[in-house]
């Protein structure tokens, strides 16, 4: 099936022009989407609890309300709080206050796909999922571009859900880059797989294993940091600009030969077999169940692992080296 893509000319901001959009949460995605929508001329309010994000949203000039009040005032509610907190906040503060025919939006399908949130029949349920960390959603918009996004409609109660989604995507800058049609299921399963197996879990494990191999062999940690972590960005930038071929064109023939002979010895058939298991655990809901239970039991594993990972020698040497890299935005 051919992929369905949408660009600037396919989206009409008018679908949101006389509506109030409540962004719930003002973290990585929340601050970026809210500021982009406002700069696109739309009417945005923020729903939060009192605290760090509340103060930040106020400082940025937004009207900020408790979540229930924001939901009451809104025609469109975009839920951008942590996935593991969304179901409780939705049930207690949003669902009882949502207008009939309002649109409930997400940037990740976890809670709808795994049945943690079940909206009323008269609510539009849709997703605009930027394929980028929040801070780049904002930075690229300000630079006059945008990041690609996915659109999915789970429930089209008003008949307007798709139009609202495209207008929202235009408001955050994503129709400048392209918006791909998908489903909640496809976005949820591929997003979880990508971040676990490749982008976050896979890359972190690869970087650490390379770093540890070099320092255990007696090389200086500073050199190991540059070779296994720092240069990764430079290599990934080339892949981003022109795929694997552009990266291989730019590196030396020595590196390219090493890539071909050594890469498959590191990521082996065994690794791919494990990737398939990881995907199956995502598809069957095993990962989702474990994550939900972990959160219900106060995150013992999560907290201990985060602390241990932060103490890894690569983080210590990296912090010292980055102090000298004035070009890195803090
Ligand atoms: N991070 C990213 O770049 C991406 C995230 N997504 C999705 O976007 C959504 C948001 O993730 P992300 O931006 O990372 O979230 P963050 O962790 O960066 O921010 C969460 C925000 O929610 C607020 N919050 C938490 N609990 C409550 C509550 N009970 N009531 C009101 N506000 C609350 C926090 O405020 P406080 O300061 O008070 O804690 C904070 O502003 C998730 O669905 C995620 O999967 C999708 C694509 C990429
Ligand atoms: C890659 C991690 C991500 O899926 C993202 C930035 O897209 C996330 O959940 O933060
Ligand atoms: Mg993602
Ligand atoms: Mg994700």
From TrEMBL:
Binding site for Mg(2+) 1: 191, 195
The enzyme's E.C. designation: 1.1.1.86
Cofactor(s) the protein requires to work: Mg(2+)
Catalyzed reactions: (2R)-2,3-dihydroxy-3-methylbutanoate + NADP(+) = (2S)-2-acetolactate + NADPH + H(+); (2R,3R)-2,3-dihydroxy-3-methylpentanoate + NADP(+) = (S)-2-ethyl-2-hydroxy-3-oxobutanoate + NADPH + H(+)
Residue sites binding substrate per the record: 252
Pathway per the UniProt entry: Amino-acid biosynthesis; L-valine biosynthesis; L-valine from pyruvate: step 2/4; Amino-acid biosynthesis; L-isoleucine biosynthesis; L-isoleucine from 2-oxobutanoate: step 2/4
Positions with a binding annotation for NADP(+): 26-29, 49, 53, 134
Residue ranges constituting the KARI C-terminal knotted domain according to the UniProt record: 183-328
Alphabetized HAMAP family for the sequence: IlvC
Function: Involved in the biosynthesis of branched-chain amino acids (BCAA). Catalyzes an alkyl-migration followed by a ketol-acid reduction of (S)-2-acetolactate (S2AL) to yield (R)-2,3-dihydroxy-isovalerate. In the isomerase reaction, S2AL is rearranged via a Mg-dependent methyl migration to produce 3-hydroxy-3-methyl-2-ketobutyrate (HMKB). In the reductase reaction, this 2-ketoacid undergoes a metal-dependent reduction by NADPH to yield (R)-2,3-dihydroxy-isovalerate.
Domain KARI N-terminal Rossmann: 3-182
Positions that bind Mg(2+) 2: 191, 227, 231
GO molecular-function term, one example from the UniProt record: ketol-acid reductoisomerase activity
Gene of this entry: ilvC
UniProt enzyme class: oxidoreductase
Keyword Transmembrane helix: no
Organism whose genome encodes this protein: Paenibacillus residui
Residues at the catalytic site: 108
PROSITE patterns assigned to the protein according to its UniProt record, in alphabetical order: KARI_C (PS51851), KARI_N (PS51850)
Record's protein name: Ketol-acid reductoisomerase (NADP(+))
Record's keyword terms, sorted: Amino-acid biosynthesis, Branched-chain amino acid biosynthesis, Magnesium, Metal-binding, NADP, Oxidoreductase
């Amino acid at each position: 099936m051919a992929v369905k893509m949408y660009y600037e000319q396919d989206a009409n901001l008018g679908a949101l022009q006389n509506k109030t959009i409540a962004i719930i949460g003002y973290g990585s995605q929340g601050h970026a989407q809210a500021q982009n929508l406002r700069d696109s001329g739309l009417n945005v309010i923020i729903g939060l609890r009192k605290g760090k994000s509340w103060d930040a949203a106020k400082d940025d000039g937004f009207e900020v309300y408790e979540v229930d009040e924001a939901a009451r005032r809104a025609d469109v509610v975009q839920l951008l709080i942590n996935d593991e907190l969304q179901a409780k906040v939705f049930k207690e503060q949003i669902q009882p206050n949502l207008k009939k025919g309002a649109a409930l939006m997400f940037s990740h399908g976890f809670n709808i796909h795994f049945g943690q949130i079940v909206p009323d029949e008269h609510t539009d349920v849709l997703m605009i999922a930027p394929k980028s960390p929040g801070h780049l959603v904002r930075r690229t918009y300000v630079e006059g571009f945008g990041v690609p996004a996915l659109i999915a409609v789970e429930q089209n109660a008003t008949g307007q859900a798709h139009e609202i989604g495209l207008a929202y995507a235009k408001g955050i800058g994503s129709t400048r880059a392209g918006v791909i049609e998908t489903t909640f299921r496809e976005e949820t399963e591929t997003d979880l797989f990508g971040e676990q197996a490749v982008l976050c879990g896979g890359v972190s494990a690869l970087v650490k294993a390379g770093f540890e191999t070099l320092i255990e062999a007696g090389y200086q940690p500073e050199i190991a940091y540059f070779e296994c972590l720092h240069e990764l960005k430079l290599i990934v930038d080339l892949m981003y600009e022109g795929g694997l071929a552009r990266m291989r064109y730019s590196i030396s023939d020595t590196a390219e030969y090493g890539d071909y002979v050594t890469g498959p010895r590191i990521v082996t058939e065994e690794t791919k077999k494990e990737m398939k298991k990881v995907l199956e655990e995502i598809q069957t809901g095993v990962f989702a169940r474990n994550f939900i239970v972990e959160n219900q039991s106060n995150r013992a594993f999560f907290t201990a692992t985060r602390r241990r990972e932060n103490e890894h020698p690569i983080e210590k040497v990296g912090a010292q080296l980055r102090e000298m890299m004035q070009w890195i935005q803090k």
